[in-house]
Amino acid sequence: MTATASLSGMDTAAGTASSPDRVPDPADLISFDSLLTPEELALRDTVREFVRAEIRPNIARWYEDAHFPLEIVPELAKLGLLGMHLHGYGCAGRSAVEYGLAGAELEAGDSGLRTFVSVQGSLAMSAIHKHGSEAQKQEWLPQMAAGEAIGCFGLTEPTAGSDPGSMTTFARRDGESPTADWVLTGTKRWIGLANVAKVAVVWAMTDAGVRGFVVPTATPGYTATPIQPKLSMRASIQCEIELDEVRLPHDAVLPNVTGLKGPFSCLNEARYGIIWGAMGAARDAFEDALAYSKERLQFGRPLAGYQLTQAKLVDMALEINKGFLLALHLGRLKDAGKLAHHQISVGKLNNCREAIEICREARTILGGNGITLEHSPLRHANNLESVRTYEGTDEVHTLILGQQLTGEAAFR
Prior knowledge:
Layout: H1 14-17, H2 38-55, H3 59-64, H4 73-78, H5 96-109, H6 111-131, H7 134-145, E1 151-154, E2 170-173, E3 182-192, E4 199-206, E5 209-216, E6 222-226, E7 238-248, H8 261-295, E8 297-298, E9 301-302, H9 307-335, H10 341-366, H11 377-389, H12 394-406
Parallel strand pairs: 1-4
Antiparallel strand pairs: 2-3, 3-7, 4-5, 6-7, 8-9
Helix pairs in contact: 2-5, 5-6, 5-8, 6-7, 6-8, 8-9, 8-10, 8-11, 9-10, 10-11, 10-12
């Protein structure tokens, strides 16, 4: 398996990136590409080609076998996709829009693969980059950017999902000295890649509030067990982590943050990526259904020639265009340092909700053939059930927006 090019080494000359030979996306009714820079187009096309060459021929088998392809991690690293929006420490330092475009292409391949990049970069690496010590950054970020170390992010618990403040995982100091060890005990659930990770960022309650800890997964007392069987995100890994008196040195704690603002700052990075990724899945489902409708004959003519089919296709395309416009607008705000937290909820809530409906509608055009892995819409729809749930459910984001509109917090 060979990646086409690294993002840092792409030809981003205007003539290449805005080539007149580029075939527009079938769903594009508004000349969306005209809103992107040559560099953004070049990056998007590089990741799209990687997905076309390396992911599409294999994803049905990976999904059916419930297999996460660890073999693609080095290729994702060569493309500069791991921690790509972070600066320094071997990271690509790309823009928020570029990160979003890459995420959309990866999720057009499969949500599980975009989720890996998110867990690695937006959660685990972001936590260390934002809140870690210089020693922690130097030790872990170059390894993670190079794909030599996989990371995971331990926040959710069996009884603390939407309410992380009720977590019961606890970290105590073993002594009064400032250099006393930390000892972690508790359970985390739905933690992506925890059984193949080399390092886990684990959030735990302490006597001083919630703190983050950098936990090498070889530490005694750390056990990660994959959750099986699953109907969604099958080409990915989610685990339950048991922390049984996990002993860590005093400097394992992330020193620069206390409280839930630490994990929430990372969750917002991941939520932003979902805004783009969900639309990538929707676009792929639409393209599959559109191509099928042009070839499948019923009553002597293609499905695409019937008014009801065209109405479905138009409705799907309109929502895809609106979803990408929303993602781009929020990405431009993020790059300008002006993106508000509630605006992330606008994108996550809207684009996940619309994407799952698009994938379900696309499946109807495929008829019975749509339940096979020969076609992508139902696979995407199943995956989006998870995407819609993690990094904040519809209900959580609705209440965030409700508070923004009314000034009243209605979470309890």
